[in-house]
Amino acid sequence: MKDKLYQLMNWPQIEGIVYSDEDHPEEILGPHPVGSSILYQAFFPFARKVTLVLEEKGRRVAMEKADEAGYYAATAAGKLPEAYHYELSEEDGKVRMMKDPYAFLVPLDKDELNKFHHGIHYELYKLLGSHLTSVDGVEGLRFTVWMPDAVRVSVVGEFNHWDGRVYPMSRVGKSDIFTLFIPGLTETTPYQYEVKFSGGRILLQEDSFGAPVAVEEKSCSYSFWEEDISWKDGEYVAKRGSRDKGMFFYQAGREELLKPEKLVEKLTSGGYTHVILPEAAGGKHFYHFSLGFGKKYGIKKLVDQLHQAEIGVVLRWNIGSIHGMGNKAFSNFYLANVLYIMEQYHFDGIVFSQLASLLYLDYGKEEGQWKPNLYGGNENLDAVEWLKHMNSILRKKIEGVLILAKLDAIWPGVTDSLEEEGLGFDYRYDMDFTGDFLSYLESDPYFRSGIHGKITDRMLYAYQERFLMAFGEECTNLWERLPGNEEDKFRTSKLAVAYPMFLPGKMMSSFKAPGKYEKLLSQMTRECYTWNHTLSPLEKEDEQGENFRWINCFQHNDCAVSFYRESGEEKGIVLVVANFANAPKTGFTLGVPHEGKYKLFFTTESKAYGGKTDTDQPVIYAKEQEWDGLQQSITVDLQPLSLQAYVFVPYTEEEIYAIAHKKAEEIRLQLVKEAEDKARQLKKSSLKDTLAIQVEKCQEAIAAGSETKKKLESKHRSTPGKKNKS
Q1: Highest CATH level, class, for 545-653
Q2: Which of 151, 334, 426, 445 could lock 582 by a disulfide, CB 3.0 to 4.6 Å apart?
Q3: CA neighbours closer than 13 Å in the CB half-sphere of residue 453
Q4: Does residue 723 have a pLDDT over 50?
Q5: Is 695 exposed, middle or buried, given 0-12, 13-18 or 19+ CB atoms closer than 10 A?
Q6: How high does pLDDT run on average in the chain?
Q7: Nearest alpha carbon to residue 501 among 270, 315, 313
Q8: Euclidean distance between CA atoms 10 and 4, whole angstroms
Q9: Is 726 a residue whose pLDDT tops 60?
Q10: pLDDT at position 230 over 80
């Protein structure tokens, strides 16, 4: 290297570039005036030779390799840098033309930076992410990322051989924001961020404000800000806020997203109204599962397709790993990131999972690993306020949005409104019932009597929150875990879907069955939901405690339960009886709440679902026989591992008249019989009384005669002379 050029080198800073520790690369890379010349410096470790091309004069200057790692430098006369580019001759013989990113300084908007640092930048995507930008007539992408605790952040892609040493980003002041403008890149250029932390740990990360794309098995990002697909879901989105409460959720697996047509068919055939996407990690890009999806904007196309099929799409976000909610930048980043994702992808709702580790300071920690809050408790007060803020902003920005909580710990008021000092969620996963119900199904029916509470205890707390009975990934491989043969497993699977569907609360059902059983199970699931959505006792008063009544929940030995749901409408009743035993029950009697008829309208053992029962059966008339503490009762036959549901049918006026007439006739006949019996009794009583009187008179006469005889005999004894004379 020439002595003059050598003396211009800042070797400590060059070392920072070579060892990828520099967070202010603009101070050394690019053009810098030195006296009457301009010093150009660049780092291209994959280049065999680098030439500086001054475009105005057409001058070519061979750059010297200042460091064997690939650090190049050159000087050119002039006080101001002119337009230039680098010509790289690479090891494979290819020649590449590259504009220098460090020749373009793109300052960030101070107002947007201030809003971010104050925690109120709800459109943070305008500041962060990658934006197509023009600088001095040169188009490229401006990258800006917030990366706390980073020593250095670089933009990597095919354009720099995925080498994080080549394009380090410039730290904005002393903040955790890094930025860089790279000329020549377009919105369809895949990229990643390479982040170096203290200790030398290096991570590759997608852009939280970019579109997902898979490149050579790398999880990358695209830049996009204009409308990138032709949305056809306008009608669905417009009525999203006025949609009724009839909701039925399905938890999709990652592999199912790769076959959208098949997924749509499954959801529509099963009667589902919403699909919940696979879990995404908080603080990172949401779409790791987009790898292999195949095309740019694949997730958006999937959402659009689902919306056209009248199916809502709910994002699921693992929030347990995030931290630092007391820091305004932290809280703003996560809040704005959720808003961005929800709005860009037209999502209808979001599930926050792993909330316990966010809400509790001591969750999963040993003594000494956490500090109490200012009141001495273990509640994370900053996280509580952040959740309330998040839910409030989501409702303001997205009309009709669904916000669900997956929380496996005790926390009151999760679904209470913000005005009521609650967290403001719409529904909360009922994790207790999920675990209890599945463990009950997996146990041998012979031993279920000992754990009967697992299918009944839910009603002890069902109305404390708005619960979603959630059977998602927990149902994976459930078929293999169920006891019995294939027929037993199929019956149990149908029972698993139907039983929660008739309980109060919304349901997520992802139960599956193999081969020939899948279509039958799907058909039953759809019809079961249809009944759940159309019968007022099951839907309209789903959150009212007066709506549900046990008939009998203590039949442990029978492994059976019975209950009824009643709407505010007069005598709107659905009666349900479930047999969890693997044995039939003939002549099973249960109490019913009203006098009238009970019509079987649903059974898991219907012929339509592969069973043997015909639902077109005659109505059952309640009889005046006290049972289960109720004045009326009916008697039914139950198939093994089955559920039957009956709708109450009041008597018609004609039937009421006929029944009243029949009862009157029965009463009349009863009265006649009673009168005749009484008359006979009176007649018999009268004859008996007459004979008794006559006997009594005879007895009196006999007694009187006997007394007279005694008197005569006594008189004769007292007058002996008269006797002798005679």
Answers
A1: mainly beta
A2: 445
A3: 4
A4: no
A5: exposed
A6: 88
A7: 270
A8: 13
A9: no
A10: yes
Q: Please list, residue by residue across 147-174, b when 16 or more beta carbons sit within 10 angstroms of its beta carbon and e when fewer do.
A: beebbbbbbbbebbebbbbbbbbbbbee
Q: Which two tokens stand for residue 117?
A: 């640092």
What pLDDT is recorded for position 710? 65
In sequence order, what E strands does 306-386 have?
312-318, 349-353
Contacts for 60-67: CB closer than 8 Å, 24+ residues apart: 60/87, 64/1, 64/2, 64/5, 65/1, 66/1, 66/5, 66/6, 66/9, 66/14, 66/41, 67/14, 67/18
* C-beta separation of 513 from 505 below 8 A: no
Distance CA 502, CA 566 (A): 12
SS3 of 514, please?
coil
Could you state, in order of their start, the residue ranges of all structural domains in the chain?
A: 3-99, 110-222, 545-653, 654-724
Residue 34, H or E segment: strand 30-34
β-partners of residue 598 are: 620, 648
**pLDDT one-digit tens code per residue, 397-409:** 999 999 999 998 8
Among residues 360, 355, 350, which one has the least CA distance to residue 391? 350
Inter-residue contact 537 to 572 (CB < 8 Å): yes
Q: Please, what is the end-to-end C-alpha distance for the chain in angstroms?
A: 193
Class of domain 110-222: mainly beta
Q: Which residue has the tokens 């009463």?
A: 667
* Secondary structure (3-state) at 2: coil
What token pair was written down for 179?
């930025």
pLDDT tens by residue, 11-59: 999 999 999 999 999 999 999 999 889 999 999 999 999 999 999 888 9
Burial class for 680, CB neighbours closer than 10 Å (0-12, 13-18, 19+) = exposed
Whose tokens are 């939901």? That residue is: 529
CATH number of 3-99: 2.60.40.10
Q: Which amino acid is at 273?
A: T
Amino acid residing at 396:
K
CA-to-CA distance for 446 and 640, rounded, in angstroms?
A: 12
Kindly report the pTM of this predicted structure. 0.82
Q: Are 3-99 and 545-653 the same fold in CATH? A: yes
Coil/strand/helix, residue 72: strand
Indicate the SS3 state at residue 551.
Answer: strand
Distance between CA atoms of residues 676 and 627, nearest Å:
34
Contacts of 599 (CB under 8 A, 6+ apart): 619, 620, 646, 647, 649
Place of tokens 């919105």: 187
DSSP reduced 3-state for 559: coil
Per-residue CA distances from 470 to 251, 361, 433, 467, 590 (Å): 9, 26, 8, 9, 30
How many residues does this entry show for the chain? Answer: 726
